[in-house]
Design goal:
By secondary structure, this protein is mainly α. Helix content is 73%, strand content 0%. It has 4 domains: 7-129, Serine Threonine Protein Phosphatase 5, Tetratricopeptide repeat, CATH 1.25.40.10; 149-241, Alpha Horseshoe (Serine Threonine Protein Phosphatase 5, Tetratricopeptide repeat); 243-250 and 258-352, Serine Threonine Protein Phosphatase 5, Tetratricopeptide repeat (Alpha Horseshoe); 354-410, Serine Threonine Protein Phosphatase 5, Tetratricopeptide repeat (Alpha Horseshoe), CATH 1.25.40.
Length: 410
């Protein structure tokens, strides 16, 4: 995102000196140099203006306005380090000057010293409450620091307080994205309710914001609010009918509702848009399997393995399909135990620290009466995760079977 310069630069002219004696003469000289610098800057003669402001400072080193004007001139020359130095001197002399703090922030931001700029803008806003330029640039700096909440708050305030300000169109343009990014950040941090609020704010400002509808639909789906999820995703479908993410999202929601044929249709539609979509193939295999269509599920699982051979879930899904017999019953008579174990073994080569897969292998062995092998697999699961609940639940049964058969090997 690019930001245009919207603040109006004002050089300050000094009135007649009121002091007496040599101090008055020095101040008068400084005023003359300063005012000459202002006139030069107004003509775009910034180099000459800098010389005039420096002459003013030599005559009256404590005259804040000369440092301020010097900083502005350097800013116009894109000499931001020198501008920063001038503004910093000015705030040391008169720290209550909000204008100087604001332009110090601009000089710092132009050097990509964003955190320092934020601090300067914050002081400026304290000294100049509701100043529209300060609000806008504080929002910009907050955006650059990924503080979406602060950016949104400042731009909202700018729009409400100063609707005719030159920065308002830019704020209106970027504000929905600030809320969208805030929603995404909150989602990543696990604050899902706040994420929903942020996405809703983005949609309040831009009702056709498809990405916000999409993420909101995903959030609703993850929370089990399937009707709301469907409403959001159907809105995205109206906006982006050829976006695969719509149909992946709808497929996941229908799986959550146990509307398996509808889920199958959505994942199939996704594959029509992108035949190489591993997500769609995974969802399609899952929807087939849950309908008891084991043959179709196996074809999809094998296709997924071709698409993503280095993803653990590809092998795990294949193993899971093999755990079902032709009637769709998991561990039912005739299920493909050897194929399932082989698939889990391939998955463990990619992720050897998955206790759940060792538990699954142990369960397959147990279903086939191979208690010693089941015991070894369960033991390995507990080596990885000593609190693995399913293993702790079923291990006593395996140990009992071993004792019954007098096969325990200590």
């Amino acid at each position: 995102m690019k930001w245009c310069t919207l603040a109006v630069v004002v050089y300050y002219v000094i009135g007649p000196a009121l002091a007496a004696g040599s101090a008055a003469n020095a101040l008068k000289e400084a005023e003359e140099h300063n005012n000459r610098g202002v006139h030069l800057a107004a003509k775009g003669q910034y180099g000459d203006a800098v010389e005039a402001f420096n002459s003013a400072i030599r005559a009256a080193p404590e005259m804040v306005v000369s440092y301020y004007n010097l900083g502005l001139a350097y800013t116009r020359m894109d000499e931001f380090v020198r501008a920063q130095e001038a503004f910093e001197t000015a705030v040391r002399i008169r720290p209550e000057n909000g204008n100087v703090w604001f332009h110090l922030g601009r000089a710092l931001q132009s050097q990509e010293k964003i955190q320092e700029a934020l601090e300067a803008y914050t002081v400026a806003l304290r000294l100049k409450p509701a100043d529209p330029d300060v609000r806008f640039w504080l929002g910009v700096a907050s955006w650059l620091e990924k503080d979406w909440s602060q950016a949104a708050a400042q731009w909202e305030a700018l729009i409400v307080e100063n609707p005719d300000h030159a920065a308002v169109p830019k704020a209106w343009e970027e504000l929905p994205r600030a809320y969208f990014n805030l929603g995404t950040a909150r989602r990543e941090s696990g604050d899902l309710d706040k994420a929903v609020e942020a996405y809703k704010e983005a949609l309040r400002l831009r009702p056709d914001y498809a990405d916000a509808h999409l993420n909101l639909g995903d959030l609703y789906g993850d929370s089990g609010k399937y009707s709301l999820a469907l409403a959001s995703l159907r809105r995205v479908e109206q906006l982006w009918s050829d976006d695969i993410r719509v149909y992946l999202g709808l497929g996941v929601v229908y799986l959550g509702q146990d509307s398996l044929r509808l889920a199958q249709d959505q994942f199939s539609r996704a594959l029509e848009l992108d035949k190489r979509s591993a997500e769609a193939q995974y969802g399609l295999a899952t929807s087939y399997l849950r309908q008891g269509k084991v043959e179709e599920a196996l074809k999809s699982a094998l296709q997924l393995l071709l698409m993503a051979p280095n993803e653990t879930r590809s092998h795990k899904l294949l193993a899971f399909v093999h755990e079902h017999n032709d009637e769709g019953v998991r561990y039912g008579e005739g299920f493909r135990a050897e194929e399932a174990i082989r698939a889990y073994a391939n998955a463990l080569r990619l992720d050897p620290e998955d206790a759940g897969m060792y538990f699954s292998i142990g369960t397959i062995f147990g279903r086939n009466g191979k208690w010693q092998e089941a015991y070894r697999a369960y033991t390995q699961a507990l080596v990885i995760d000593s609190l693995h609940a399913e293993t702790l639940k079923w291990l006593p049964l395996v140990e009992e079977k071993l004792r019954e058969g007098k096969e325990v090997q200590r």
